[in-house]
Design a protein that fits this description.
- The structure is a homodimer.
- The first copy, chain A, contains 10 helices and 14 strands.
- Chain A has about 425 residues and is an alpha/beta fold.
- Chain A has 2 domains: about 300 residues, Rossmann fold, CATH 3.40.50; about 100 residues, Orthogonal Bundle (Rna Polymerase Sigma Factor, Chain: A).
- In chain A, the strands form 4 sheets. An 8-stranded mixed β-sheet of chain A has the order 1-4-8-5-11-12-13-14, with helices on both faces. The first copy, chain A, has a two-stranded antiparallel ribbon with strand order 2-3. The first copy, chain A, has a two-stranded parallel sheet with strand order 6-7.
- In chain A, helix 2 crosses helix 3, helix 4 runs antiparallel to helix 5 and helix 4 runs antiparallel to helix 8.
- The longest helix of chain A has 18 residues.
- The first copy, chain A, is globular.
- At the A-B interface, helix 4, helix 5, helix 6, helix 7 and helix 8 of A face helix 4, helix 5, helix 6, helix 7 and helix 8 of B.
């Protein structure tokens, strides 16, 4: 598979040491565990991998170190000679590096298929777009379903607990590998926004611009609570086997599905659920069943969300990544004063929130804007009015797209990046 | 145990056929199943029971009939000679008839201990207060953990699916039994509010006043979704045994705890969780554990909520009662026009909502007020500004108490109910 339609024409211009999506570049001798075919959540082996941290293990916030580390990633477009046109896209909790598809497990388009590609908002004829599966993930990057090289066994729950800081540190190694000193822009929504903020704080000189969508500088009590429910649902499933389910040939599908169902509600909004489903019945002519089957369309929808999620996601990865989000707090090292985290930042910020997002509400973006302003940072902020809730950043939301487009366009013009080449008609 | 402090002095005035709380009045030969002592969720046998529907089975909305039906209830105060001072309190999803305690399972005060009693807001020196465990419940009233008299076996999932309408129909039988033709007032929050609305629609002539707190005329898509998650969590627990867990000597504790944890978040509010817990750690001096134990206080709190809930509630009851709430829709029989449900209603309504309640948001109360107004009903409405969320009706919320107190006082004066007798100082 290829990462984008433009690759075939643009690849010849790619610098020699860069491998675009579609080219397996596994440097280490450390493949993903070949799970039995058809195992729910099993990861295809045709990922685009690079092994970093072989000589210098990755230091983790917990104090542990990890190495070597494999990163699965996708690139699109061409890195220009100045290496000044790289955009790092950071994915959300249950996302992965398949911003464009087809996704190897679901066969569906990528999660930002509408935004990324030649001639699109994030124009791969202008930008070199990189997205890597996060540390702790399950789509090729080192995580709890990888092999611990010291033991030859699956990591499982012996995998070290990681943080958003660790994820970003691993991504920095990937950029080193790709020869990208400074990002034109880092962009992400939700947990991706956390990574973008972390990038701007940990590596301010490496981030020219940061687009923080539906994010926060720390995970709220309510969000920790929802994550804890999801973790408890997974760990309550006997098929979880204390985290050792893969060794037992089992998968905690029911627990993971319940976790997903709970989380999925938080990604939407009450008005959107009302508009989409309301109290519509599965079988309007028959009425309710007076039973516990999915009488309402919203029940059927949720069950489907749970069932399809377990086919593409790993339960332990869910535990580790939710934990990383819970631990995220950029203000904590500064006695709760967020502005100090951004002192003298050279980064140009754009924050975008969605009016109906109750998981990462606008108030949290505003608090970041206040802190950035107090740190004399260059910051723009837009609250997009929509009923689509938190997941609006994944959906067709014109006002959001216009904001993002305008910000990038202004930035690119200022940076003197080559204008878009009109698509040839053939 | 007794139902309230005033009972010992007031009981002699109670009409002969009435049994206040504390007196076992089991008319049928149909006790609760004597579960092994200590079984989580087991129901003490000293409930205050009455068996109704022996001769005339209760017709259910599903088309089935049920009888005899046992109702567990608590009363406080004295029914006056005119039988005009009865207040029916309707409890919420996980509540029961122990409005005052100590609760026989938890040993804690009742859920409205602060509001109900002599000299309190709902003054039992003035009113005769009745509260019954709902149909489908697990604290003595007939439900899935009762015995099916036809088979001699536990009902389990063979218990018919019931509705809010069925709950109210059973309560009407209880009032018949108690000799109460017309209620001075029906009061309830959350699912209790649904019952109060149902009372006003099904038996308008029997309800002089209705206090509808944090309620709705129908369960929203988002609320159905949250309930479905809870049900899936229970049914995913292998200890649920297809609903037959009691016969197997098992209890789906983990699934029920996850259901409760999810629901509990929805009863609070983000600001309240932030104020109460924020990101406070269990062991601040030690920092985070880099593990999956409860690092944050909010996690520990939620786990405690789950663990304590399974000791006092039955998993199948949770399925049945959530289903009854999901099915509730007063507008459905009227082509979605809610006002028609209230045509020519003689009832005086008071609606109270809480500004931070996102489970039954103010907008839903407003919609009821609009419908009542369109039906020319007598209606008052107050939105109480609070950060306490949906559960504010169970908490110390002065503005709510003032509203309720003022409404009842005005109503009582108009009805010529005896003024409060000052408590004797001894």
């Amino acid at each position: 598979m290829t990462g984008g339609r433009a690759l075939s024409t643009l690849c010849p211009r790619t610098l020699g040491r860069l491998r675009p999506a579609g080219v397996l570049c596994l440097f280490g001798a450390w493949p993903l565990t070949p799970l039995p075919p058809g195992t729910p959540g099993s990861v295809p082996l045709e990922n685009h991998l690079v092994t970093v941290c072989q000589d210098a293990p990755l230091p983790l916030d917990s104090g542990a170190t990890l190495g070597p580390v494999t990163l699965a990633y996708q690139t699109q477009g061409v890195l220009n000679a100045e290496r000044s046109n790289a955009i790092l896209v950071c994915h959300a909790l249950t996302g992965d590096h398949y911003i464009t598809g087809p996704h190897p497990v679901t066969g569906k388009p990528g999660w930002w298929e509408d935004l990324v590609g030649p001639g699109k908002l994030i124009d791969t004829r202008r930008y070199f777009v990189v997205c890597a599966n996060v540390l702790g993930g399950c789509m090729g990057t080192t995580g709890p379903r990888s092999i611990n090289p010291d033991t030859g066994q699956l990591w499982g729950l012996t995998f070290p607990v990681i943080t958003i800081g660790d994820m970003v540190r691993a991504q920095a190694r990937l950029l080193d590998h790709l020869g990208i000193e400074r990002l034109f822009c880092a962009i992400g929504g939700s947990m991706g926004a956390m990574q973008v903020l972390q990038w701007s704080v940990a590596y301010p000189e490496r981030v020219q611009a940061a687009v923080v969508i539906a994010g926060s500088w720390r995970h709220s009590a309510q969000n920790i609570a929802f994550h804890e429910v999801g973790r408890q649902a997974i760990m309550a499933d006997p098929d979880w086997c204390g985290g050792d389910y893969l060794s037992h040939g089992r998968v905690p599908q029911r627990g993971l599905a319940v976790a997903r169902m709970t989380a999925h509600i938080t990604y939407l909004s009450e008005p959107a659920l009302h508009r989409k489903f309301g109290r519509k019945l599965q079988n309007p002519s028959e009425g309710v069943s007076y039973g516990f089957e999915a009488d309402f369309q919203v029940e059927s929808y949720l069950r489907h969300q749970g069932a399809s999620f377990v086919k593409r996601f790993d339960a332990n990865s869910y535990l580790y990544i939710t934990r990383a989000m819970d631990y995220f707090d950029l203000a904590a090292p500064h006695d709760g004063v967020l502005a100090r985290a951004f002192q003298k930042t050279p980064t140009r910020f754009c924050l975008i929130s969605f009016s109906s997002d109750w998981l990462f509400p606008t108030a949290e973006s505003r608090a970041i804007v206040r802190a950035l302003t107090a740190a004399a940072a260059n910051v723009s902020f837009v609250e997009v009015t929509t009923d689509k809730g938190h997941d609006a950043f994944l959906l067709d939301e014109p006002a959001f797209h216009e904001t993002l487009s305008g910000f990038l366009e202004g930035l690119a013009q200022k940076a003197g990046l080559a204008p878009r080449v009109p698509e040839a008609r053939s």
